[in-house]
Design goal:
2 copies of one chain form a homodimer. By secondary structure, chain A is mainly alpha-helical. Chain A has helices at residues 8-23, 30-37, 41-47, 51-56, 59-72, 79-89, 91-94, 99-110, 113-136, 141-164, 171-187. The first copy, chain A, has 2 domains: 8-54, Arc Repressor Mutant, subunit A (Orthogonal Bundle), CATH 1.10.10.60; 58-187, Tetracycline Repressor, domain 2 (Orthogonal Bundle), CATH 1.10.357.10.
């Protein structure tokens, strides 16, 4: 077996999520994952620090895409429009992810308290990153924090709608709907 | 020492937060807390399951106040108005809490990853409770989830503003401002 296997990361991630889904996260070992992927434990640890990282791998890229797009929005964009640009930018991250894979991953997280806490903490960091980017655009702290949290809420609701959806609408449509809903709810008060 | 000490819960909670603040959460033992409060470890465990519960004690009451008020809002209230009623209802929970005590508690949480995760999970449960209450009012799932998360964001931002504030405005003023800001940001897009 060669030192650098083709697509090792993808194979390991797919194997891990299958096993977490079949047997539970806590019950799965790195040895199980390596075996299912036809690779070695050493190869696993060249790609991931631990079992948990497999579930959240790539999230840093998503964070970066979202926050950069907020920062780079035109000066004339309102806070909510800058966040909308961030929501638009992350679509490229989801491009290669099938709905079935996203659904499997979400079910794995939902079944494990530690993974749920980790996910909440990722969302919280994302909101902080967006709020910082808005502050750097000259937006006041209150508005920045609130807009960032509302933007993350739009994102969460849209991803859930996409994963649970049966009508075949894609994520961009769910994001548009969810963003429109945020604007409507606020004006309906 | 009598079996039922007067104000034992308050004394223990105050002693615990002082010690967490002075020495760190991980470095403080239940024995330390009992000693500082002039009570026994047995008394501590009659009031709290563990060290962590001291930090979040009372949060269930807050959750209940918020969610009940959303459920009991007039039928004519829009989703955001029902959430506004919830935000109004929790003010009574904060009535006896001084800003200095709230600030001390927040600093203790900010200094400990486990407590931060616990707090995020409390906020997430609160949002779920509010969303369920809105669904029971006949609000669709997307709007219910989004309004609930936006309401929790308003709450978080208002409490932070109150804790950090130097102008003496009370929590109700911060909540009003934060809610107004939510409405403004959504209409500004």
């Amino acid at each position: 077996m060669g030192r650098w296997e083709p697509n090792a990361r993808d194979r390991l991630q797919r194997a891990a999520l299958e096993l977490y889904s079949e047997n539970g996260f806590d019950q799965t070992t790195v040895a199980d994952i390596a075996q299912r992927a036809g690779l070695t434990e050493r190869t696993f640890f060249r790609h991931f620090a631990d079992k948990r990282e497999v579930v959240f791998w790539g999230e840093d890229a998503l964070h970066e895409l979202f926050v950069s797009a907020v920062a780079d929005a035109p000066d004339s964009a309102s806070p909510i429009d800058a966040v909308a640009a961030g929501l638009e930018a992350i679509l490229s991250y989801f491009e290669p992810i099938t709905r079935a894979a996203a659904r499997q991953r979400q079910a794995v997280i939902a079944a494990n308290t530690g993974l749920q806490e980790r996910e909440l903490s990722k969302y919280s960091s994302l909101a902080e990153g967006i709020a910082d980017a808005l502050c750097n655009r000259g937006v006041g702290a209150l508005t920045a924090n609130l807009t960032a949290m509302a933007g993350v809420a739009v994102f969460k609701v849209a991803v859930e709608g996409w994963i649970d959806g049966t009508d075949g609408r894609d994520l961009s449509q769910h994001i548009r709907e969810s963003l429109g809903e945020l604007k409507a709810l606020a004006s309906g008060g």
